[in-house]
Specification:
heterodimer; A: mainly beta; globular; B: mainly beta
């Protein structure tokens, strides 16, 4: 089946530093990828929709200058948390949309647990 | 390692009939369980969650899910399906460390 690789799985960083998270579709091309974050016991919150070759579409309340998204190729989208602060500590997960004969389907990365000290 | 299984790739049901989308999980400790729906060209939408308490959880759009600890299941149900319910449904589980795992998704087709 289709695989989406997300890296790193865990990251601990100091406040003020930037962290990059990668999301790769390994065996299909994904023109659209989604980035979510989740706080403990809460549902996923869609942060942004990443479209290959164009600017990401951010959800209301998500700072685009803080959460930089780059979808430079059909198999790779990156989320960079710039000048991270402790309140950015969260679980981040990406999903890639595969379109095909049976309709579209989403495949999920394994997620990244970010802890900002 | 934790896992979530949705054994059916597709579920077909006639409009007005009850529907069930199955989900089983393997999580250490007490699980937090979620159901999400994806409509074409959209991201995930949250339907409902189980954290603790009553085993029957009611969510959006008339959906409900029953947490069954002995069977490690969290099946999604609706008493009367609508054509507009046709979509992709994903079950997900958190472990105590907050790592989230998704099932493979089930396509629900409701025919008029």
């Amino acid at each position: 089946g289709a695989v989406v690789s997300q890296h790193p799985s865990w990251v601990i960083c100091k406040s003020g530093t930037s962290v990059k998270i990668e999301c790769r579709s390994l065996d299909f091309q994904a023109t659209t990828m989604f980035w979510y974050r989740q706080f403990p016991k809460q549902s996923l919150m869609l942060m942004a929709t990443s479209n290959e070759g164009s600017k990401a579409t951010y959800e209301q309340g998500v700072e685009k200058d803080k959460f930089l998204i780059n979808h430079a190729s059909l198999t790779l989208s990156t989320l960079t948390v710039t000048s991270a602060h402790p309140e950015d500590s969260s679980f981040y997960i990406c999903s890639a949309r595969r379109q095909g004969g049976k309709g579209e389907k989403l495949f999920f990365g394994s997620g990244t647990q970010l802890s900002v000290l | 390692a934790q896992s979530v299984a949705q054994p059916e790739d597709q579920v077909n049901v006639a409009e007005g009939n009850p529907l069930t989308v199955k989900c089983t999980y393997s999580v250490s400790g007490n699980p937090y369980l979620f159901w999400y729906v994806q409509y074409p060209n959209r991201g995930l939408q949250f339907l409902l969650k189980y954290i603790t308490g009553d085993n029957l959880v009611k969510g959006s759009y008339g959906f409900e899910a029953e947490f069954n600890k002995s069977q490690t299941s969290f099946h999604l149900k609706k008493p009367s399906a609508l054509v507009s319910d046709s979509a992709l449904y994903f079950c997900a589980a958190n472990d105590a460390g907050n790592m989230l795992t998704f099932g493979g998704g089930t396509r629900l087709m409701v025919k008029p």
